[in-house]
Amino acid sequence: DYVHNFPNPFRAGRESTRITYFLTQDSDVSVKIYDLAGNLVWTRDIKAGDEGGRGDPGKTEWKIKWNGRNARGEIVRNGVYICKLQAGSRSAIFKIAVAK
């Protein structure tokens, strides 16, 4: 129910931002980051029951780091990116700002 990242904005190439989310039950988790043109920049998939895909009624908190690099390992440009986190049937969309 609660998803955010910190720091925001962050300095890609110098620091990472931590995407934090909570799971109340085991779920497949998918994190996708897009640029404003809709191009997929970075993705991370986690299977239910694995580290980052386990949950419990006490709201287990998980954190995923994104270092501001794309799938090719290049530092992304300054600007706003869209993060979509899907956990089971639930999803959240929020903005991540990069400022070097």
Low-confidence region ranges: none
Helix/strand-derived category reads mainly beta
Q: Kindly provide the radius of gyration, computed on alpha-carbon positions and rounded to a whole number of angstroms.
A: 13 Å
Order of helices and strands: EEEEEEE
Nearest-integer average pLDDT: 93
**Count, helices:** 0
Helix content: under 10%
The count of strands amounts to 7
Shape: elongated
Straight-line N-to-C gap: 30 Å
Short description:
By secondary structure, the chain is mostly beta strands.
Care to describe what's here?
The chain has 100 residues and is mainly β. It has strands at 3-6, 17-23, 29-34, 40-46, 60-66, 79-87, 90-98. It has a four-stranded antiparallel beta sheet, with no helix packed on it. Strands 1-2-5 form a three-stranded antiparallel beta sheet, with no helix packed on it. Strand 6 (79-87) and strand 7 form a beta hairpin. The protein is elongated. The relative contact order is 0.33.
Layout of helices and strands:
Elements: E1 3-6, E2 17-23, E3 29-34, E4 40-46, E5 60-66, E6 79-87, E7 90-98
Antiparallel strand pairs: 1-2, 2-5, 3-4, 3-6, 6-7
